[in-house]
Amino acid sequence: MYSVLRTQSSHAILVTVIKTIFVDGVGEIILARRRGTRSLRLSVSGSNIRLGLPLALSERQAVNFVLSKKDWILEHRKSKTLLSNGSRIGKAHRLVFVTNNSTKITTKLIDNQALVRLPLSVLPESSGAQTAAIRICKKALEREATSLLPQRLRSFSNQTGNTYKSVTIKFLKSRWGSCSPQNDIILSAYLIQLPWQLIDYVIIHELAHTKHHNHGQNFWNEVTKFAPDYKAHRKLLKTHQTDVVEIV
Predict the structure, then answer these.
(1) How far apart are alpha carbons 245 and 12 in whole angstroms?
(2) Tell me, what DSSP letter sits at residue 125?
(3) Quick one: 118 and 180 in the same domain?
């Protein structure tokens, strides 16, 4: 009925365990076990499905719950949009499909173009072409995120006075960023697709964790100093996907 795709651990101080499974008829489900969670919480953001659950709840119980909510999930989940020629990727790249006489699909980053070369017999909307497009677009996003996000983080660290030990850019599927108990910050490369005000909120959020490693009132007071509209930002973040998306 289901199979484990990958696992990752996160935020040790909060004892959160992230695991992605595949459920037949539903697709990928992100399971997030967290100390202190007492009930099941199902959410759908774009094509991403997340289930928050208590640490002690078994995976079989989680799967059964997901299957019981299958109709609701399918109703609210959005299908992934096909990437098309000329799509804007990140802040400065464009996706370009070209055809040639080759026998295989190839990709390359050239200046600000994420280039996908296709054989004459392969259409851009085919699964092979889309897989290649996602792969090269992620390289473009990683390049931009690695260049822009650390300097943005340094700038806000100077403004807020909240210091960190290190910063790492990764493709995170279940969150936009994290801060370890040692103040090592991880920022999702997918962030670079968001509007700058949301990027800045995530950075301010993670920097606040260097002072308060929880989500208590003191933490939110710290966030409010530099992002007074954080509630609106949190709401907007839920409308964005941690995936490669076209920017219009």
Answers:
(1) 30
(2) T
(3) no
What is the amino acid identity at position 57? L
Q: Quote the CA–CA distance of 129 and 133 in Å, as a whole number.
A: 6
In order of 22, 56, 205, the CA distances from 240 in angstroms are 22, 30, 17
Q: Are residues 163 and 229 in the same domain?
A: yes
Structural domain count of the chain: 3
> Is the Cβ–Cβ distance between 178 and 184 less than 8 Å?
no
Final residue in a domain of this structure, among 101, 124, 141: 141
DSSP one-letter code for 83: P
* C-alpha R_g of the chain: 20
Give every CB contact of residue 155 below 8 A, 6+ residues apart in sequence.
none
Whether 10 is covered by a domain: the verdict is: yes
Domain that holds residue 159: 142-237
Same domain, 25 and 47: yes
In this predicted structure, the answer to whether residue 13 has a pLDDT above a threshold of 50 is no
Cα gap 146→183, rounded to integer Å: 19
E strands, 61-148, are 88-89, 93-100, 106-110, 113-119
pTM score? 0.71
User: Which pair of tokens denotes residue 198?
Assistant: 């949301």
**Distance separating the N- and C-terminal Cα atoms of the chain:** 38
Listed residue (234, 182, 181, 174) closest to 204, CA to CA: 234
Residue-wise pLDDT for 90-115, tens only, equals 999 999 999 999 899 999 999 999 99
* Same domain? 17 vs 98: no
| Pick from 148, 171, 170, 167: nearest CA to 241 | 171
Q: What are the angstrom distances between the C-alpha of 182 and each of 12, 91, 167, 171, 179? A: 10, 31, 11, 21, 8
